[in-house]
């Protein structure tokens, strides 16, 4: 595999809080255009990994390289990070996906406004333009966030538990969008808990439980044995853990 | 007769006209900042920062007496230092920002009162704590209007990043480096407007003209631009009402203005669509979908 085909390199990456690693010595290369599910129990370090990739968290050790430029990433955090009581309309919220084009000052041109409406139509929210985001249901809000992400037009998409508390019909529509983005050649990493959905739609899986338990074709990774190990490892927390002396050079 | 009661005081007395101009400037500048304070759930933080301004103003007072420039610069520096220090403590210790702000402002107000009483008489302390909207001189009026002008320009420039920072900061951090600019720029605006308000209403009540009209407006309207407009309107109307009440009933003007905003707030709380009775008073039948 040469460097041109790799969009994301994680090199001996250790991330954590207060010196306790949430991600421990992770190595992996994500190929351009890959559709990867990140699977693991709560506390496995999945959201932590995304925080590091978007620059919100400094690695404790190791490093990563992203071959898109910072503009090339779009990140969908968990829903709870959005203040739904804020008075802003669905159209205004979704149009912020065009930030790279309009920045802090420019208004929307007619064609850009048209693209915002097209994105809303693509997620099934036509007619919701003037509604306040506080009046949307959880599923509708997630559709709006997908529409905004669509407008960001990024190469590397990071989705953190996009289907939490979302009904089956909405999941179906949103997965269709993800598959469409995949077909357009974008690289997608999604944190997911629904293994049936992962097996069905995601060609590759990264199984995390603080350590990387495997990365590769989904069918080979999501075995009963691997999943049992993941459950056991993620539950462990040792407040008096000794300092980790694993050398930089060791391969995981 | 009614017209005479409403307009007479302003027509007859220059100090009333000056107070009116001061109220208009504060309503245009400080109140929109208050709307964002409210929507960012920082109302109490605004209160804390208002108190934090006291020792800076008091130090200026200690050094130069009742000098506008010295007290203003002292207040601005103290406010910014406390805002930044509170943020720093929150990020580098396990204390949350509200806890560290509370600690700073309690220390600030104790320090401030101590400094003022070292030198001054109680009358000076009253001026610093409760302002003197009926005694605004040219320099104070110019200062308040200058801060209002700067605030309106800055809000226009910061509007989009600030709105995003309020309701989806994670998204803003993902697409732009403007998040800290929006956050700290906004804090500076809060401090500036608190200092402007402090000359008219005193350190303790300056935050009232920011928060009360915003809270009342939030109960009536759903869109942010409408909320900003309505809050400014409520603030200015309360300013006029408070000044008139102060003139006719011979009560102190600063508290009268804040109480006027309070009356609007309480009425809104009861009657507005977002208030306690508002939703129940709406007897219209529900729609089909």
TrEMBL record, chain A:
- Family membership, please give it: Belongs to the ABC transporter superfamily.
Q: Which UniProt keywords apply?
A: ATP-binding, Cell membrane, Membrane, Nucleotide-binding, Transport
The cross-references to PROSITE patterns, in alphabetical order and at most eight, read: ABC_TRANSPORTER_1 (PS00211), ABC_TRANSPORTER_2 (PS50893)
Do you know which NCBIfam families this protein is assigned to? Answer: AztA (NF040873)
Q: Which domain of life is it from?
A: Bacteria
Key word Plastid present in the record?
no
Q: What is this protein's record name?
A: Zinc/manganese transport system ATP-binding protein
UniProtKB/TrEMBL annotation, chain B:
Domain of life of the organism encoding this protein: Bacteria
Name its GO BP terms in alphabetical order.
response to zinc ion; transmembrane transport
SUPFAM superfamilies with a match to the protein in the record: ABC transporter involved in vitamin B12 uptake, BtuC
* Listed InterPro entries: ABC_BtuC-like (IPR037294), ABC_TroCD (IPR001626)
Matching entries from Gene3D superfamilies are given as: ABC transporter involved in vitamin B12 uptake, BtuC
> Can you cite an annotated GO cellular component?
ATP-binding cassette (ABC) transporter complex
Which chain regions cross the lipid bilayer?
Answer: 19-39, 70-90, 102-119, 139-159, 171-192, 198-221, 228-249, 255-279
Q: What is its main location?
A: membrane
Tell me where in or outside the cell this protein is found. Cell membrane; Membrane
The membrane topology of this protein is: Multi-pass membrane protein
One short Pfam name that applies is ABC-3
Keywords, sorted A to Z: Membrane, Transmembrane, Transmembrane helix, Transport
The similarity annotation says: Belongs to the ABC-3 integral membrane protein family.
Record-linked PANTHER family = ABC-TRANSPORTER METAL-BINDING PROTEIN, IRON TRANSPORT SYSTEM MEMBRANE PROTEIN HI_0360-RELATED
Protein's name according to its UniProt entry = Zinc/manganese transport system permease protein
The organism named in the record is Aromatoleum tolulyticum
């Amino acid at each position: 595999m040469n460097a041109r085909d790799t969009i994301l390199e994680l090199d001996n990456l250790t991330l954590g809080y207060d010196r306790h690693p949430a991600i421990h010595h992770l190595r992996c290369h994500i190929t351009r255009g890959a559709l990867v599910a990140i699977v693991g129990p709560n506390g496995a370090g999945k959201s932590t990994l995304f925080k590091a990739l978007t620059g919100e968290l400094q690695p404790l050790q190791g490093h990563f390289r992203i071959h898109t430029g910072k503009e090339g990433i779009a990140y969908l955090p968990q829903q709870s990070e959005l203040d739904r009581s804020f008075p802003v309309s669905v159209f205004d919220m979704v149009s912020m996906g065009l930030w790279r084009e309009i920045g802090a000052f420019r208004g929307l041109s007619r064609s850009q406004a048209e693209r915002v409406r097209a994105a809303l139509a693509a997620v099934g929210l036509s007619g919701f333009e003037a509604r306040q985001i506080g009046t949307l249901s959880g599923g509708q809000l997630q559709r709006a966030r997908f529409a905004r992400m669509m407008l960001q037009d990024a190469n590397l998409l990071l989705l953190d538990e996009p289907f939490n508390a979302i009904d089956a019909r909405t999941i179906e529509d949103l997965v269709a969008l993800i598959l469409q983005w995949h077909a357009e050649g974008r690289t997608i990493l999604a944190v997911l808990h629904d293994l049936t959905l992962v097996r069905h739609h995601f060609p590759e899986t990264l199984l995390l439980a603080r350590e990387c338990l495997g990365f590769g074709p989904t069918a080979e990774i999501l075995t009963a044995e691997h999943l049992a190990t993941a459950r056991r490892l993620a539950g462990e927390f040792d407040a008096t853990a000794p300092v980790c002396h694993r050398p930089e050079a060791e391969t995981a | 007769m009614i017209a005479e009661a409403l307009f007479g005081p302003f027509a007859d007395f220059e100090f009333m006209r000056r107070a009116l101009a001061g109220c208009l400037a504060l309503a245009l500048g400080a109140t929109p900042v208050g709307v964002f304070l409210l929507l960012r759930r920082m109302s109490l933080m605004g209160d804390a920062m208002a108190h934090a301004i006291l020792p800076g103003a008091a130090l200026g007072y200690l050094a130069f007496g009742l000098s506008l420039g010295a007290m203003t610069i002292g207040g601005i520096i103290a406010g910014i230092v406390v805002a930044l220090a509170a943020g720093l403590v929150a990020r580098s210790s396990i204390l949350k920002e509200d806890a560290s702000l509370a600690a700073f402002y309690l220390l600030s107000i104790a320090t401030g009162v101590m400094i003022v009483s070292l030198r001054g008489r109680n009358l000076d302390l009253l001026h610093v704590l409760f302002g003197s909207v009926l005694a605004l001189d040219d320099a104070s009026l110019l200062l308040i209007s200058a801060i209002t002008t700067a605030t309106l320009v800055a809000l226009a420039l910061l509007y989009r990043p600030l709105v995003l920072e309020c309701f989806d900061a994670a998204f803003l951090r993902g697409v732009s480096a403007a998040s800290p600019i929006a956050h700290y720029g906004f804090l500076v605006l809060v401090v500036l407007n608190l200092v402007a308000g402090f000359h008219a209403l005193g350190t303790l009540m300056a935050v009232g003209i920011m928060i009360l009209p915003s809270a009342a407006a939030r109960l009536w309207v759903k869109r942010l631009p409408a909320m900003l407009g309505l809050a400014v309107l409520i603030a200015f109307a309360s300013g006029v009402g408070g000044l008139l009440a102060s003139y006719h009933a011979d009560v102190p003007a600063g508290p009268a203005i804040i109480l006027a905003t309070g009356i609007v707030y309480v009425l809104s709380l009861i009657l507005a669509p977002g208030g306690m009775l508002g939703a129940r008073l709406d007897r219209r039948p529900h729609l089909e979908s």
